[in-house]
Amino acid sequence: MGLWLLRRIGQILPTLLILSFLIFGLQQLMPGDPALILAGEERGDPQVLAQIRAELFLDRPLWEQYLRWISRVVVGDFGFSWRIREPVGALILEKLPVTFQLAGMAFLIAVLIGVPAGIVSAVKRDRPVDWATNGVALFGISTPNFWLGIMMILLFSVELGWLPPSGYVPLTEDPLQSLATTIMPAFVLGSGIAGVLMRHTRAAMLTALAQDYVRTARAKGLAERVVVAKHALRNALIPVVTLGTIEFGRLLAGAVLTEQIFTIPGFGKLIVDAVFNRDYPVVQGVVLATALIFVLLSLVADLLYMAINPRLRTA
User: Fold this and answer.
1) Distance from the first to the final alpha carbon of the chain
2) What is the mean pLDDT of residues 31-36?
3) For the chain, what are the domain ranges?
4) CATH top-level class for 98-266?
5) pTM to 2 decimals?
6) Cβ 281 vs Cβ 38: under 8 Å
7) 8 Å CB contact between 278 and 272
8) Are 200 and 118 contacting, i.e. CB atoms less than 8 angstroms apart?
9) Percent of the chain clearing pLDDT 90 (strictly above)
10) Nearest-CA neighbor of 228 among 116, 134, 112, 126?
11) What is d(CA 2, CA 16) in angstroms, rounded to the nearest whole number?
């Protein structure tokens, strides 16, 4: 187990190195000159522009800029934001808990809705319950987040006045108010993921219920709930775990639009502001941190496989 873990970590390092190349290289394709934006009213002065480029090392070759950036990243220094002059690492640590809370709540909503619905749909195949759950799942997958978010604001904030339409309160300051400000965006994000989880759980359960070991369990006289929960579900969870880790990573990286609609100061708003202001260090730091989270989630998925199916520990 320890050797396998070391081997997996060894695979993570070259993956992150390749991703750093892509992040830095693709960023250079962004239109616009950061020096022009930072110069403000003095953008017409060539001396000011030359000074800014020299201070930010924008006048150096790209390979030198990359080596300077990656050598600092290796020791945990993501540099400073060009626009607000704050450490990028501090900005990431400030915004990441916000997005983690939002993504965590959305994922919890998705799991609580999608997995049980998928199990019921598989057990009650080709019955009204199956058709209804498939219809709800299709609605969740098909509905755009921005439309659902606006509709929920109109209903629960404008018409009913139950929840605040926007803003964010940290969980440490007021847990109830924090829940009130994040429950709507979390449901908006989680509804689509719930539909995806439901469809995959249903497919995995149908495959598991058709296996010989399930028929053997039923032939032994075991109760149907025991057959479903103990024998079928445990084996069906492996592909669902894979999907779940991928979707959780997507929630962290893909909450940009939802955070903009509900004015939540998370990762999404941070990177949108950085892109508009050509704040390269912030863009590079946020995207690299997101990539690292994706890679770590893949490792977590492998560990969960072994917890669910002990046979994989000796594979």
Assistant:
1) 10
2) 70
3) 16-74, 98-266
4) mainly alpha
5) 0.78
6) no
7) no
8) yes
9) 1
10) 116
11) 21
